[in-house]
Amino acid sequence: MDLSIYKMELLASEHIKEVTSLWRESMMEALGIEPVHSFESQAYFLEHLLPSSYQVSVVVRIDNSDPVAFMASSETEISQLYVSPRFQGKGIGSYLLSQAKEQSNGSLTLRTFEVNEKAQRFYRAHGFVVRPGNSENEEGLPDIECQWKGKG
């Protein structure tokens, strides 16, 4: 990631609308379905619920402060990692993943949907092992579990 173009910030109230929009857009493109939650419900989840369990980081453009990606992660888990479709393939997701690995306790788990083959390839390329998941999610879609274990 070219750090002269982007910077990472902690989620703040001024990010909520734009991050919720990019999250919904990215999910729709990846899954091929409309979001199951309203915009308002998803924004509330982003602003009030995710930060209670995860560090929520936002990648913004330096020139205009527009969010282009976000990640919610802890020492053991990545709950959310979404990059705006217009900014995918530029190393932003890889940068976020490297940050999560550095801040982890040496192991990370995440889930992605079976239908999202692009995400599966991305996580495999970054050292995650893919295992069967379930359909116990709000979308009701089959998912998979991805696990990464660092060296040592």
Corresponding CATH architecture: 3-Layer(aba) Sandwich
CATH superfamily: Gcn5-related N-acetyltransferase (GNAT)
CATH class: Alpha Beta
Shape: globular
Radius of gyration: 15 Å
Sheet of most strands: 4 strands, antiparallel
The assigned structural class equals alpha+beta
Number of domains: 1
Q: Tell me the number of strands.
A: 7
> Which fold name is given in CATH as the topology?
Aminopeptidase
Low-confidence stretches: none
Instruction: Please state the average pLDDT score.
Output: 93
Helicity, as a percent range: 25-40%
Quaternary structure state of the chains depicted: single chain
How are the strands of the largest sheet arranged?
1-2-3-4
List the helices and strands and how they pair.
Elements: E1 6-10, H1 16-31, H2 39-53, E2 55-61, E3 67-73, E4 78-83, H3 92-102, E5 107-113, H4 117-125, E6 129-132, E7 143-149
Antiparallel strand pairs: 1-2, 2-3, 3-4, 5-7, 6-7
Helix pairs in contact: 1-2
Structure description:
- This protein has one domain (6-149): Aminopeptidase.
- 34% of the residues lie in helices and 28% in strands.
- The protein contains four helices and seven strands.
- The strands form two sheets. The chain has a four-stranded antiparallel sheet, sandwiched between helices. Strands 5-7-6 form a three-stranded antiparallel sheet, with helices on one face.
